[in-house]
Amino acid sequence: MKKAKKIMNITNLTRMVIALAVLLGLIAIYLVLTGSRSQKNITEITENKTIVVVSSGDTLSGLLLAQGLNHNDVHTIDKVLKSDASISTLRAQRDKLEFIRQGIDSPVSKIIVITSPWNQVELTCGDSGNWACKKIEIARDTRAVYRTGEIQDGDSFYLAGQRAGIPAGILAEVYDLLAFEMDFERDIRAGQKFSVLYEENFSDGKKIDNGRVLAVSFDALRGKVEMYYFKKSDGTSGYYDENGNGAIKSLKRTPINNAKITSKFSKNRKHPVLGYTRAHKGVDFRASTGTPIPAAGAGRVVARSYNRGHGNYVKIRHNGSFETLYAHMSKFAKGVNVGTTVRQGQTIGYVGSTGYSTGPHLHYEIIKDGVHVNPMTVKLPAISNLGKQDKEKFLEYRKVLDNGIKQLSQNPSLYIQL
Ligand SMILES: [Zn+2]
Questions:
Q1: How far, in Å, from the CA of 327 to the mean position of ligand 1?
Q2: Distance 265 CA to ligand 1 centre (A)
Q3: Is the pLDDT of residue 236 over 50?
Q4: CATH fold group of domain 41-137
């Protein structure tokens, strides 16, 4: 019996040793994995170059130390990046670091911080161990291309634009521009033609991204809408109609792109919740809960509150005599408070169904000199018109663009350089 017990004890001991070994093994694997964490985002290593894409949780110091730089280097680089390149944090999935060595075993002598395809910061280690910082702008080869399309039966502008080969980002910009002049809900008909002149940016013969929208035209119901991009002599830029009048209005009639109107402005309507007839002082746009609500124009938030009718609402005072109100929000955007200055297009809250509402939608009001007006028909002032000299320059520039467009419409596969 005694012997048997001893044998059992030995078995137990063996088990314990094995368990301990497994545990240690697991710890070792864990340490190896976590130790190599900073290596995981390396995308390319050549003999003297290592490219690291920043991932979330990465810090500049962590990445530098992982490349064998010492704490002194880290401190100096951190300081020089802040002071000379205004870089204080790295952005995950966007920024890249390139570490360059003289030889595979040499210390890092140069670091290139790539913040966009067009902007880099070069850090070079001097003999005395100091780091010099230089901002580099990558030369871009910008080509203007031209695309034309036509609305077909049952089409949306987006569908027709995609068919015309216009990239989604450009299409969204064009939509935003045209939304100042037309109502995509009611002004779209089969047979309407449109065209877009826009930039494509190349570097070393490779397309990197799209640039600005240079010219747009659309056969709207009330006539051709044309807009041209133009840089003024003071360096600011904007879009102007064919005569050089500002095309960007101070307010947008439909703050949310592509949202269907479910209830119009009227002095008299039966309220869907209250039952009795009362004026509908705004326009309702259908949109799902959580859809961002952009400010219709630049201004200052004068109310961010709740009441039984509007639910959560925001009111913005714009330049001149206009105010806009956005109701039934599910929640407010972070940082939007009474007194906050907002840009046109900045998200101020999210669609919801708070207050007297039958379902998620945006109730949008425009108030002019204290009186509610119809957002769809009120005359809205342009943000900026051109001065006399700029207007003359614009008309010259427009001729250049129009000439380019003429050439490209004959040879759609070509591009022009402006
Ligand atoms: Zn409403």
A1: 8
A2: 8
A3: yes
A4: Nuclear Transport Factor 2; Chain: A, (3.10.450)
> Distance from the CA of 361 to the center of ligand 1, in angstroms?
8
Quote the pTM value: 0.70
Confidence band (pLDDT; 50, 70, 90) for 211?
very high
Residue 23 pLDDT level (bands cut at 50, 70, 90): low
Q: Assess contact for 311 and 355: CB atoms under 8 A.
A: yes
Residue 106: both structure tokens together: 């040499």
- Alpha-carbon Rg for the chain in angstroms: 30
Distance from the CA of 342 to the center of ligand 1, in angstroms? 23
Q: Check whether 152 has a pLDDT greater than 60.
A: yes
CA 367 to ligand 1 centroid distance, Å = 14
Cα 65 to Cα 11, 62, 75, 101, 134: the distances in Å are 47, 5, 11, 15, 22
Please give the class, per CATH, of domain 141-248+386-410.
alpha beta
Domain range annotation of the chain: 41-137, 141-248+386-410, 260-373
Residue 302 CA, ligand 1 centroid: distance in Å: 20
For ligand 1, the distance from its centroid to the CA atom of residue 378, given in whole angstroms, is: 17
Question: Do the two domains 141-248+386-410 and 260-373 of this chain adopt the same fold?
Answer: no
pLDDT digits (tens, 9 = 90+) for 268-309: 666 666 666 678 899 999 999 999 999 999 999 999 999 999
- Rounded Cα–Cα distance for residues 87 and 384 (Å): 33
Q: 260-373 has which CATH code? A: 2.70.70.10
